[in-house]
Amino acid sequence: xxxxxNRPIKAGQVKDVLFAWEGKDKQGKIVxxxxxxxxxxxxxxxxxxxGILVTKLKKKTYSSGKKITEKDITLFTRxxxxxxxxxxxxxxxxxxxxxxxxxxxxxxxxxxxxxxxxTGTSLNQAFRKFPLYFxxxxxxxxxxxxxxxxxxxxxxxxxxxxxxTLAIKAKIKSALTYPIAILSIAFIVTAVIMIxxxxxxxxxxxxxxxxxxxxxxxxxxxxxxxxxxxxLIFGGLFGAVYFFFQSWQRSIKxxxxxxxxxxxxxxxxxxxxxxxxxxxxxxxxxxxAAGVPLVExxxxxxxxxxxAVYLDATIKIQTEVTTGTSLTVxxxxxxxxxxxxxxxxxxGEESGSLDAMLGKVAxxxxxxxDEAVASLSSLMEPMIxxxxxxxxxxxxxxxxxxxxxxxxxx
Length: 410
Prior knowledge:
The protein is mainly α. The protein has helices spanning about 40-50, 70-85, 90-100, 105-120, 125-130, 135-150, 150-205, 215-250, 250-265, 270-290, 295-305, 310-320, 325-335, 340-350, 355-410; strands at about 15-25, 30-35, 55-60. The N and C termini lie far apart (about 95 Å).
């Protein structure tokens, strides 16, 4: 099977597309391949210069796939690492992973990267063309692996890093999603009771001609408000949630304010802080073990932590390290790391095993996050049951009090 360099052809504003071709070489042997070019004429001319007579030519199209997620990139990194360790050539590894992926969007992404690498572009430069999926840390580690000739080892480290980071994020999301989902359902159920059930009771109670208990009057007043202004309540609530998330995504000031607030929230803040420290130390350990100089490694660490407080702290640490301050002292001055973390870093610096110590810190805090999430789940269940019991039970009691009063009169 012949392979042909995919040379991007710039013909005005013509967009390059991928063509699958089949033809015969000078010996009459049937060869096949793919070529990225601006049109069929360019493909024919390019292959003719290489002594290939094209017999079949077809534009290669991709079905619109799903959105590419972080999980997809993590899985690709692990698969690429495994194949390269097994001795599979880089381009063939891209072919195997891309063609075997269930998401067509990932297949197209990998085919584009493969095409760049086939033209002689380095792997890390090919990744840098897609910053939406491959961040600076990913590209820097791949570049370090290419320069040192240890790409397989660096890809393995990168796969482990991304798997652990993804696992921590999943645990945090599960810890936050459960109570939010339960409370949202409780609000909807309460609204349904207020809009449809309570008015039916109100009609029955009106026929009693007796004074109603204060809890019943209070619930009926809330019900009247829901019935009259339900569109404002639901519209305002959903609008506020939508505006909040849009502001969170688009406004840097909003993101910074929320990052600071999340670290101060009771119970949840401690879990988020531990997860952030775990990501911070895991990232720095991975970069340092790859041979990336400390000052350069800190460029990627702050953003990978995922919190503006630790991003600002990392910038401050980097500035101090640049001027000759030790990493331990710089981290102590940042005042966002527990004493245990700085002590472990100090031991690592003194013993020359900083990457190993940072890795142990990351392991410790990842275990802490696991335990905290498990404890949080156990704690939230009874709390939610109490909240639901008081809310729904209070409504039921308020509605049945007049019936009990009527029964005692009779």
